[in-house]
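[retry 2/3] Tetratricopeptide repeat protein: previous attempt timed out, resubmitting with same input.
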Amino acid sequence: MKSEQFVRNAYYCILQNDFKGALQWFEAAAAEDPDSAEIHYRCSVTYARSGRLDKAFEHAKLACELDPGKSEYLLNLQHLQSMRLVQEAKKVIDSGVAPASELYQMISVLKEAVRLDPLCEEAYIWLAVAYSQLNEHAQAIASLKEVIALQPQDQGLIDMLDQLKNRLSVYLHDS
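[retry 2/3] Tetratricopeptide repeat protein: success.
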């Protein structure tokens, strides 16, 4: 079958660090065998690793529709949904001008991202940033501790935790 050869070509490209070529082969495989959930899943993973979330999401959704019982397809889709939510929240929080009501909305968005993918480190980090912007330093520290539990060796996160602790101390002394 042609699609199997296309998938093999895609993996050959991946091994050569040619992700653009891999995506072309996966797309060719999906066009040849559009009812293959596995091809759409693999295509989704490659798009996600290439930073193309919209296409990754599209193929992940197709994989789930074609084989709704396969848990790895659902986990991939939930991971991608989580990443999209984090990107949405990041734009608002990173603007630095969002009103409190919008920051609280983004906190809800980020909590949904964590519900979909409890290992989504970026969601915890942006939760900490949002809480910090709202002067809710205890919640910011709690969120950051969650991600540090996932990445205990990350010095950048430990430094950020120290900064949040200093802000809490200043906030408590100024209040």
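[retry 2/3] Tetratricopeptide repeat protein: DSSP finds nine helices and no strands in the chain.
[retry 2/3] clearing retry counter.
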